[in-house]
Amino acid sequence: MSPADSLGRIFFPHTVKEFVAKEKADIVHYTSAETALKIIQSKTFWFRDCRVMNDTSEILHGKKCLLDFLASKQGQQFIDAMNSVHSGCSFQLIPYIKFLLESNSEEVFIASFYIQKQETNPNGRLSMWKAYGGGKASVALHFSPDYFFREGTESIAMVVQYQTAEQFTNALLQKAEEVRNSSKLFSAMSIQDFVQHIGLYLLFTVLSTKHNIFEEEQELRVVLPRWIGNTLFVPTPICIDGIPQTVRVLDLNKYMTTPPHYADTHKLFKEVVVGPSGQQKIIKRALELAIYENATIVHSKVRCVDVPLRT
Fold first, then answer.
1. For strand 269-274 and strand 302-304, is the pairing parallel, antiparallel, or unpaired?
2. How many Å apart are CA 192 and CA 240, to the nearest integer?
3. Rounded to whole angstroms, how far apart are CA atoms 154 and 224?
4. Sequence-distant (≥ 6) Cβ neighbours of residue 174 within 8 angstroms
5. What is the pLDDT along the chain (311 residues), one digit of tens a residue?
6. In which element (H, E) is residue 199 found?
7. Which end of the chain is more exposed for a tag (fewer CB within 10 A), N or C?
8. Distance, C-alpha 184 to centroid of its chain
9. 152: left (phi over 0), alpha (psi -120 to 50) or beta
10. Neighbours of 88 (CB within 10 A)
11. Is 187 left (phi over 0), alpha (psi -120 to 50) or beta?
């Protein structure tokens, strides 16, 4: 393992693929029934600008935690640990971190998924059905693991960490100590390479941090910063709820042209779950027609759940 990879393992000990395999969980995207049908029919998936997310504070919390940390005595301990690798690197690191935080506070595109254990959540999460139903029908798209964990998608998948400011501080102090303990290994990196990696890992930490009050969600966040190329993610102007905005559109048709091949739409999903509503059977049939594209259905991956929702 290279010094850069070892450094990455300190900040992100487990890849998303490793975490999901260990937890034996599904990768689920909750959305409205209408949007689910659009995803299936168009074979596209949208990444939304974080500034027009349902709750923009989701990004601001991590940013505030890091800025407060860097301005504190504990933050100085972190900086001292980085300087133990390359003396004086903080003179480059601090401006670089602030540059990343400011430049990426705009046009960071995000798609949210949820890590869900089938044995503990066979009917999905009640909070998600409430959040995405909104009095209307909702759907949970369970993506095929082989499809979801494709390489070279120009995006960054991260398991969200639910932390208070104190927990955020303690986690970074622990990582700083690990860096200090391996300073000889990381000193083999050039100062520019070391600073760049630390800055980016801190940015990704910010983008994957939410307040611990939301811990029940178990979110998996796929992030597309604006500085990442868009071979597969096409900037597209659209209007949502009366607000003109830009989304990044992942064309699943292009995505499916490279191995593993998914010429059949149904192979994209492990299953598709229709949430509680008065039109479940109607929605289920429409989704089946879209997924199987009028082919003979031997075993449908679409099912309905009967979950009572309080109004």
1. parallel
2. 41
3. 7
4. none
5. 899 999 999 999 877 888 888 888 889 999 999 999 999 998 888 888 887 776 666 678 999 999 999 999 999 999 999 999 999 999 999 999 998 888 765 667 888 899 888 777 788 888 888 887 656 789 999 987 766 666 555 567 888 999 999 999 999 999 999 999 999 999 999 999 999 999 989 998 998 999 998 888 889 888 876 666 556 788 899 998 888 998 988 877 666 555 554 456 777 888 999 998 889 999 999 999 998 876 677 789 999 998 776 65
6. helix 191-207
7. C
8. 33
9. left
10. 10
11. alpha
Taking the C-alpha atoms of residue 137 and residue 133, their distance in angstroms, rounded to an integer, is: 5
- Three-state SS string across 235-269, please? EEEEEECCEEEEEEEEEHHHHCCCCCCCCCHHHHE
Structure token digits, residue 296: 């003979």
Q: What are phi and psi of 202, to 5 degrees?
A: -70, -35
b/e code 133-158 from CB counts within 10 Å (16+ = b): beeebbbbbbbbeebbbeeebebbbb
Asked if residue 129 lies in contact with residue 276, where contact means CB atoms within 8 angstroms, the answer is: yes
Q: Are 54 and 157 in contact (CB under 8 A)?
A: no
Cα–Cα dist 188/194, whole Å: 9
Which residue do the tokens 């995000």 mark? 110
Q: Which amino acid is at 246?
A: T
DSSP state of 228: S
CA atoms within 13 A on the CB side of 286: 16
CA distance 113 to 37: 17
132 neighbors 138 (Cβ within 8 angstroms): yes
Alpha carbon of residue 228 to chain centroid: 15
